[in-house]
Write a structure and sequence with these properties.
CATH topology of the largest domain in chain A: Rossmann fold
CATH architecture of the largest domain in chain B: 3-Layer(aba) Sandwich
Number of helices of chain B: 7
Number of strands of chain A: 17
CATH class of the largest domain in chain B: Alpha Beta
Largest sheet of chain A: 5 strands, mixed
Oligomer: heterodimer
Distance between the termini of chain B: 28 Å
Number of domains of chain A: 3
Radius of gyration of chain A: 25 Å
Structural class of chain A: alpha/beta
Structural class of chain B: alpha+beta
CATH topology of the largest domain in chain B: Glutaredoxin
Number of helices of chain A: 19
Distance between the termini of chain A: 53 Å
CATH superfamily of the largest domain in chain B: Glutaredoxin
Radius of gyration of chain B: 18 Å
Largest interface: A-B, 22 and 19 residues
Strand order of the largest sheet of chain B: 2-1-3-4
Helix content of chain A: 25-40%
Shape of chain A: globular
Helix content of chain B: 40-55%
Number of strands of chain B: 4
Number of domains of chain B: 2
Strand content of chain B: 5-15%
Shape of chain B: elongated
Amino acid sequence: MADIKLTVDNIEVTVPEGSTLLEAARAAGIEIPTLCFLKDINEIGACRMCVCEVEGARSLVTSCVYPVTEGMVAHTNSERVKEYRRKTLQLILSDHNQDCLGCSRSENCELQAMCKKYGVDDTQYYAGKRNESVIDDSSVSIVRDNSKCILCRRCVGACINSQGIGVIGANERGFDTYIGTAFDLPLAETSCVNCGQCITACPVGALYEKDSTAAVKAAIADPDKVVVIQPAPSVRVGLGDCFGMPLGENVEGKMIEALRRLGFDKVFDTNFGADLTIVEEATELIHRVTTGGTLPMITSCSPGWIKFCEHNYPDMIPNLSTCKSPQQMFGAVIKTYYAEKMGIPVDKIVSVSVMPCTAKKFEIGREDQSAAGVPDLDYALTTRELGRMISEAGIDFVNLPDGEYDNPLGEYTGAAVIFGATGGVMEAALRTAVEKISGKELTELNFTDVRGVEGIKEASYNVEPIGEVRVAVASGLANARKLLDMVKSGEKDYHFIEIMACPGGCVNGGGQPHVPSKVRNAVDVRAVRAQGLYDIDEACTIRKSHENPMIIKLYDEWYGEFGSEKAHHALHTSYVPRVINKDL
Amino acid sequence: MKVSNVPFQGTAEQEAKLIELINEHKGQKGCLMPILQGAQNIYGYLPYEVQKIISDNTGIPMEKIYGVVTFYAQFTTSPKGKCEISVCLGTACYVKGSAAILEKVEEVLGIKEGECTDDGAFSIESCRCVGACGLAPVMIVGGEVYGKITPDDVPGILAKYR
């Protein structure tokens, strides 16, 4: 591609052809403010915060979608430009609920930050008519508050472009425009999969998770309850964001210590559940491949993906692995094996998880997820909720010493921790399945073909004695749709598919801390956080799930064989077909 | 929820026509507008049930369809009543106070402009000049023109059509 030379604020810069003025300015070390722009997700030039002067242009241009041309001379910071941006902010505020103190995004609100930067601080700009709205809290995962919405449409882009779903969009026109569902159906009655990508896309407080912290704090305060917590793999490479730590930094030790100081009675790790999932799932895969079962088998760890499949591909439900997710498997183990071993009555246990995910809040309420006759898990917190609990408790997170997990369920292998990255479940399953099928010890543990942030990846491996095993990995539900359509049409043929609802996998889940768009647009957050997990994997001495000593012990003492009937009863589940558009 | 309370009375013939129309346009870029225009011609309006048929058969998310329908004033999600009411908001009528007439009609029927009463009896819309400026303010009810009216006349006029 040819290079383009241009001048931005008197700085000469050379960028590849096809770059936008926003990108060229960044290359010159200049940050142009944006509100609606999210790279690859929402590139519509709607908010007009990124306007710049281009010499010879008829009017100000929106730099986020304005392609550079040879010899262009642009000014990103003139008085005219700044005045225009101020006016834009004033107009946004004129129809914005400025209840900032009580807002979930106060202090990390992109609108608030920008208003501060431009000295826009009056609450009464263009005082007059305001749109009225009602908070939609029908969903167990996601709350929508249009009084905070600035109509940037980043959530809409996340829903339709990243996820291929499109249950929210812009309704009506002009001043009456609002983001909503078709016919204003409550979100819970649509085919929303609760992935929460809309929440992480939102620059303001118009979208947030349904809070579970109050209930969890009440359980901790109750002396009769034994409150058990399990954080997911991705939480340890996301939680640091809440405390200004470097993106993707592994804060596992501090996280454990913080959980203990918050008053959780037992601190375990979902990674143990992930190892358990792998031995069950690999066993299921081997069984299906060798006995002519339904193929391709598709992973079932991601509850957003599961609900998407039920709505959009109900005919492929037989392809889903019947394995519960790591969260649910671990929940089942705690309320059966652990409860019995420790002599704790099940009704005294409050089982909590911390997840990079909002769909986990939906998963805990699903049918057929109660091995002990009560729900396997009681509350699923997001990484953000845990961050808030830690802040509120006055814990100086950054300076915490490293804590250690409680035994016996805190042990994990490298295979478990990579569950948080797209391709991680596939790699972990292959480490176990290949070794089990071939009967030979696996020496090369890194299945690098399935790593990386690309939306769809495929690979094939020759595994004696069964021959070629073809696999595919998709993350982001729009990519999942593409892949499944190719499978359904017969264009592609695989044995095993991993699907994660969120682009890049759980590290980029809808429950992870907000990353400001100016960072998101410049750095691949998914890759940085995933690297944090692969580093942990490399450092683990045991990197195959079936070699986790506690897993071996659990099967010896409790379940018998991998995939035994007892394991099936507790660790597997079922699914229900759903429709995209419900009948009235 | 903004689903009309007037029961949907689409027929199998109408649905067959709509499916035929969808198959004609489906998959083409920009297919939604001609499908919606055709669907409104078939049914007279675009209720949930019709938008669902379009969504289910094109794969276009229903929210996207609803977004387009609510964006354009030409599309409506409410049926026309057995008796259609049209209040002129053209310049002459407006100056003579037709906004208050419209408000009174809305108040008496308990619905807004563009909507239909739950029993399907009345629907209200506004229009721009019916060419009877000499009679301003003007309202048309069931095809009959009422001129030089005041808000107080509205209940009596509507009572004749119940």
